[in-house]
């Protein structure tokens, strides 16, 4: 199955979430996003940089909440952007809102 990529960040859907996130060998950072969300656009370049620089130890994907309500509802995502880190199929860290690359990496460091 091929994934679409936006600046190094793959796009997942309700249909591909299980395969791409829950069964991934690496920890996966999921950006729950929406096209109408300005902070989501602000953090996109930060996540693209992290996706490239940390590819050896972290997978970064995004999921459009409007197009994928099942996954969004399953994890109780209410605000955009929500960044959720999954390890071994379980959410281990959830962050809401845009932040700098340095701050995001600090907040994820212990969980990666």
Automatic annotation (TrEMBL):
CDD domains per UniProt: TRX_family
Domain of life: Bacteria
GO MF term set: protein-disulfide reductase activity
GO cellular component, one term: cytosol
Disulphide connectivity of cysteines: 37-40
SUPFAM superfamilies attached to this UniProt entry: Thioredoxin-like
Classification via Pfam families: Thioredoxin
InterPro entries membership: Thioredoxin, Thioredoxin-like_sf, Thioredoxin_CS, Thioredoxin_domain
UniProt domain Thioredoxin: residue ranges: 1-112
Keyword terms, alphabetized: Disulfide bond, Electron transport, Redox-active center, Transport
Stored Gene3D superfamilies: Glutaredoxin
GO biological process, one term: cell redox homeostasis
Classification via NCBIfam families: thioredoxin (TIGR01068)
Family: Belongs to the thioredoxin family.
Protein name: Thioredoxin
Organism field: Streptomyces violaceusniger (strain Tu 4113)
């Amino acid at each position: 199955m091929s994934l679409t990529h936006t600046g190094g960040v793959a796009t997942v859907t309700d249909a591909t979430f299980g395969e791409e996130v829950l069964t991934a060998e690496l920890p996966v950072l999921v950006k729950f996003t929406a096209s109408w969300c300005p902070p989501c656009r602000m953090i996109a370049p930060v996540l693209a940089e992290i996706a490239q620089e940390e590819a050896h130890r972290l997978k970064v994907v995004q999921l459009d909440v409007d197009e994928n309500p099942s996954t969004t509802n399953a994890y109780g995502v209410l605000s955009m952007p929500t960044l959720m880190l999954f390890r071994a199929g379980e959410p281990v860290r959830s962050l809401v809102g845009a932040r700098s690359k340095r701050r995001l990496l600090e907040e994820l460091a212990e969980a990666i």
